[in-house]
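Supplementary Methods. Inverse-folding protocol.

Structures were first reduced to a discrete structure-token string of length 57. This string, shown here, constituted the complete conditioning input.
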């Protein structure tokens, strides 16, 4: 791809818009779902070994 200095303004604007849409519509939701899922999975695995939370009986 050509250098950023040589891209004309409409082409650069279109590229930045596509990049922003990709990040905002696809990457951010996918990352947030993956992070929340990984946290829930890790807590579930931890509770398999440590037992459920609460006072001891």
């Amino acid at each position: 791809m050509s250098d950023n200095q040589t891209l004309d303004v409409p082409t650069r604007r279109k590229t930045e818009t596509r990049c922003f849409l990709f990040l905002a519509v696809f990457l951010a939701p996918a990352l947030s779902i993956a992070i929340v899922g990984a946290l829930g999975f890790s807590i579930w695995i931890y509770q398999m070994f440590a037992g459920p939370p609460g006072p001891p009986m």
